[in-house]
Design a protein that fits this description.
With about 90 residues, the protein is of the alpha+beta class. The protein contains 3 helices and 3 strands.
């Protein structure tokens, strides 16, 4: 394994053009809907809101991403662990 390439900093994120994803999660579907409703009333730069949601919020099982006017919803599930021995 090698060291990963340099990761983009927040400065490159704030220069993004176009649609900024707003990731949202809740402990239940109702909690997720409530958070989306609260975000509808936010009067701030969409890039700042997207950055804050992606880096400072907890991740709960009921998740959604708001992309402009499009809402993509889902639920995180646990899976099984797999070990891969590539290159052997």
């Amino acid at each position: 394994l090698e060291q990963p390439a340099d990761v983009a900093t927040s400065a490159s994120f704030t220069k993004a053009d176009g649609i900024v994803p707003w990731p949202v999660s809740g402990r239940s579907p109702a909690a997720r809907r409530d958070q989306l409703a609260r975000l509808a009333a936010v009067d701030a730069d969409p890039r700042d809101v997207g950055w804050s949601l992606a880096t400072t919020r907890s991740e709960f099982p009921h998740r959604a991403v708001l992309l402009g006017d499009t809402l993509i919803e889902g639920e995180a599930r646990t899976g099984r662990t797999a070990f891969m021995f590539t290159g052997q």
